[in-house]
Known about the structure:
- The protein has 561 residues and is α+β, with helices and mostly antiparallel strands.
- It folds into four domains: 91 residues, no CATH class; 217 residues, Nucleotidyltransferase, domain 5 (2-Layer Sandwich), CATH 3.30.420; 87 residues; 55 residues, no CATH class.
- The chain is built from 19 helices and 17 strands.
- It has a seven-stranded mixed sheet with strand order 7-6-1-4-5-16-17, sandwiched between helices.
- Helix 3 packs across helix 6, helix 10 packs parallel to helix 11 and helix 12 crosses helix 15.
- The longest helix has 17 residues.
- The protein is elongated, with a radius of gyration of 30 Å.
Amino acid sequence: MTAALMAAGVTETTYRRWAAKLDQGGVKALEDKPKSGRPPVVKLDEEEKRCLRRIYLKSNRAERSGSMTMAARIAAHDPATCLRPETRAAILAERSSKHHLPVEVRRAMREVSPVAVARYRDDREGQNNGIYVPGWLRRDEETGRLLMPGERQVWDDASVNVAVAVPWAGRGDRAGDRWGWRAARYQLLAGIDCATDFFCGFGYVMRTSDGYRACDVANVMHEVWRQQGYMPKKVVLEGGSWQAKPTMDFLRTAGVGVVDAKGRPNQKLVENYFNRLWTALSIFLPGYGQIGRYRGEMRKENLNWMKVQSGAADPRKYFPTLKQFLEALNRAVAYLRWEKVESKIYGTWSPEELYKGAEANGLKLVEGLERYALPVAVRRQLRRGGMVFVTAETQLEGYRHEYAFATRDGWRYDGAPVVVRFDPVTAAARGASIELAETWRDFRAGTVIDAAAPCVSAPPDFVNDRGIFDLRGAGRHESQANRAAVRTVVTAYDTRGPIVTRLAEDGSPHQWGIRGGVPAFAEGYGAASPEAAERAEARRSDMGEAALAAIEAEERMMAYA
């Protein structure tokens, strides 16, 4: 019944009141009763209302309002307006004050909201300050109908209100240099379902800069959707990295539409969810390490934060580790998954219950979409013999390396302009995807020359064959500070909880865990190897323990020098 009420835009309280009236008096009992009170001085038709609103919009009395008195009296005096004689007489009638306008006249101009006045004066106002209509964010912006579960997601970033301690093998961080651990407020990239407030998934990005990039956005979205097995039809995104060219290319290839939220309040759904998530997270986290939401809060914790930043204290002494943080985050998400949402407009519902069957309202995964989520995508010219060279940042943030790829049939495309896509973390094992950047001879743009061109260059000298940093061979680069591996934790959810957890750390293989093993792939999107399927099935019963063990292994990593 909850879904039907949301589709009709009726609250449960209103429905029960109508149902009781229908049972008592039939359909006639639902008709509006005649209203009592003084009859209006004048009744306006729709054309007169529009005329008054137009003139009120033109008046300029305050920042977001006009002058009702002047607009009404000018309209009454102007013979070119469509006002009837009785309407003019009612407006210009002698009263104790000229500002005492007929109720109907004032009511017509009140329908022009302050944001409409601002938008009339500056058409960019909706982008700068935002125009927000309660309840509209759960409706389709074109038809006005209520959104279906799984149809649209809203994504945003957030800095968590707690610093998290992670193993650090870089240079330039005082705590990392001394203790081998670094604490920072890393970036949480998260998406929720617009129709239900269901938490679809997140990516926890750990960079030296404590920020994130467009490649992180595309990677997290792709991984969450791949784990869930479907994509939404549209996503609501702010500007910056969320609408950068790599992100938009990824979404365009996926066939996912974008609702622009630059400067607008279209992010209120995810922002309100973040507020609830931080409250729940503060309860489930250990009783230390929170640095507060507002300036001046948590004085003791902020002093400890300064100690850690200066390198005087071990981050693990004052702040939760990555394992503790992820455990608390999953508990907070689990609580909000079944905790009912109360809306003055749409009533009450459980996100977990309403989200069931959401995949039926989404899109199938697109074949070959993964390559558009790779962090490196550059244009090059294919050299003789099918070779292509790319200098790109490695997984050690700030350090660049030249990668060489050899295409199998590249001799057919000598001199062709190509786009090379790859992940520096997996370049040695998975190679690069190489495709035509534009139409060339008889081949169309986008033609895949080699989906996995092998990397034939030597690996960066700071990584050994096991993917662990070997800084002894990179001493000449130590003067360039603030370098450590970019690591990302991605988790997607369904109505039963976390699907899988992917830990991308220091070039190591992906670790799968939490529950359910590797999800089934959509038709045409690829398939897990039989060996991988057997391993996933063997671990299915204790998958949760495997994920925790993977996180514990990361925590035991220390800086290598």
